[in-house]
Automatic annotation (TrEMBL):
<dbReference type="InterPro" id="IPR016040">
    <property type="entry name" value="NAD(P)-bd_dom"/>
</dbReference>
<dbReference type="GO" id="GO:0008460">
    <property type="term" value="F:dTDP-glucose 4,6-dehydratase activity"/>
</dbReference>
<dbReference type="Pfam" id="PF16363">
    <property type="entry name" value="GDP_Man_Dehyd"/>
</dbReference>
<keyword id="KW-0456">Lyase</keyword>
<comment type="similarity">
    <text>Belongs to the NAD(P)-dependent epimerase/dehydratase family. dTDP-glucose dehydratase subfamily.</text>
</comment>
<dbReference type="GO" id="GO:0009225">
    <property type="term" value="P:nucleotide-sugar metabolic process"/>
</dbReference>
<keyword id="KW-0520">NAD</keyword>
<dbReference type="InterPro" id="IPR036291">
    <property type="entry name" value="NAD(P)-bd_dom_sf"/>
</dbReference>
<feature type="domain" description="NAD(P)-binding">
    <location>
        <begin position="4"/>
        <end position="308"/>
    </location>
</feature>
<protein>
    <recommendedName>
        <fullName>dTDP-glucose 4,6-dehydratase</fullName>
        <ecNumber>4.2.1.46</ecNumber>
    </recommendedName>
</protein>
<dbReference type="InterPro" id="IPR005888">
    <property type="entry name" value="dTDP_Gluc_deHydtase"/>
</dbReference>
């Protein structure tokens, strides 16, 4: 099978390409990536001499380029490319509209011209809004959309476009809405790698607000196996929620776990200004994908976080440059937040 992966030089896309080749080595993967600040081509350096792999630098909003790629035998699109950082969406919402909404539309429209092309859209649990802290409630596939940041609004809009192309034009689509991923190759601007790399640099962990925010942590390789299950066995037109093997951990608890693994103390925590519109709690029910496709997450948070800390400790060359860029962004952001 010949597959187009968009955003394959980002965190989840690069993990997915490694995962897919390990399981389907005779498939061909074409990776279309604009190489924004979030990309790191080093994540896929090991594929340089793999004849089954092709990299194309380009923008998913470039319709002529997408048309050309799709006309060359692509049978399946797995769409990861996006602006993905909530803090950046507060800083520059229009960029999120362009890439996440217009970019997804461009891919859909081009796919429609190429007949029976299968389209899998990778989305987020953030489209469902926020849950209160004091309930066991979880997001299901039937939860109403209630996006609250420019990032989640742009992803929600892209989800609606994907479904509209299924209902109106019979494009064979599937969607997945997953929780917060963590693991190797994640940009050091995101919370877990930011904590680890700050501590390695002798700096403190910046905890937004009271730190009592809850995320549903999903090990990235478990996310990849869930996408594989949807591609191989998912029902066309359906959405699947994907979550991790976790209880409700607050950001503060996650920070303390990392402090303990890295032999640090709570004096290395620093409470900083909160994110505007900060969603309080996410929790995802993965009951449907378990029941229908026999998928479950495999790694506990305790195991996954130890593996992740070890990976960042062993791969400083991978993250160093991106760390400098990320902290320059945060310095600029902090100046606006403390006002
Ligand atoms: P990322 O920010 O690490 O990577 C995004 C990649 O997309 C980068 O390589 C970037 O260069 C590329 N890209 C951006 N704009 C592009 C454009 N216009 N054209 C082509 N390529 C472009 O993102 P990620 O964390 O790997 O997330 C991948 C997908 O998963 C996104 O759609 C995101 O919304 C979704 N998601 C992520 C998480 C998470 O925890 N990271 C959770 C739920 C859903
Ligand atoms: O320095 C920090 N301090 C802090 O307390 C950072 C960067 C974050 N946080 C908090 C904010 C969130 O409550 O940690 C939590 C996680 O933050 P992020 O890593 O920025 O992730 P989040 O905003 O939850 O979104 C992520 O998961 C859903 C991804 O970035 C999205 O792409 C995905 O859709």
């Amino acid at each position: 099978m010949k597959i187009l992966v968009t955003g394959g030089c980002g965190f989840i896309g690069s993990n997915f390409i490694h995962y897919w080749f390990s399981r389907h080595p005779s498939d061909i993967i074409v990776n279309l990536d604009k190489l924004t600040y979030a990309a790191n081509p080093e994540s896929l350096r090991d594929l340089d001499n793999n004849p089954q792999y092709q990299f194309i630098k380009g923008d998913i909003c470039d319709e002529a380029l997408v048309d050309k790629i799709l006309s060359d035998g692509i049978e399946l699109i797995i769409h990861f490319a996006a602006e993905s950082h909530v803090d950046r969406s507060i800083d520059d919402p229009l960029l999120f509209v362009k890439t996440n909404v217009l970019g997804t539309y461009t891919l859909l429209n081009s796919a429609k011209k190429h007949g029976d092309l299968r389209f899998h859209h990778v989305s987020t649990d953030e489209v469902f809004g926020a849950l209160p802290l004091d309930t066991d409630e979880k997001f299901t596939e039937d939860t109403h959309y209630d996006p609250r940041s420019p990032y989640s609004a742009s992803k929600a809009s892209s989800d609606h476009f994907v479904r509209s192309f299924f209902h109106t034009f019979n494009l064979p689509v599937t969607l997945s809405n997953c929780s917060n991923n963590y693991g190797a190759f994640q940009s050091p601007e995101k919370f877990i790698p930011r904590m680890i790399t700050n501590l390695m640099d002798g700096k403190k962990i910046p905890v937004y607000g009271d730190g009592l925010y809850v995320r549903d942590w999903l090990f990235v390789e478990d996310h990849c196996s869930a996408i594989e299950a949807i591609i191989l066995k998912g029902k066309i037109g359906d959405s699947y929620n994907i979550g991790g093997l976790v209880k409700d951990y607050s950001n503060l608890e996650v920070a303390k776990t990392i402090l303990s693994i890295m032999g640090k103390t709570e004096s290395d925590l620093e409470f900083v200004a909160d994110r505007p519109g900060h969603d309080r709690r996410y929790a995802v029910s993965w009951e449907k994908i378990h029941r229908e496709l026999n998928w479950s997450p495999s790694l506990s948070f305790e195991e996954g976080i130890k593996k992740t800390v070890a990976w960042y400790q062993e791969n400083e060359a991978w993250w160093r440059e991106a760390k400098t860029e990320a902290e320059a962004f945060y310095q600029r952001l902090n100046a606006t937040r403390s006002k």
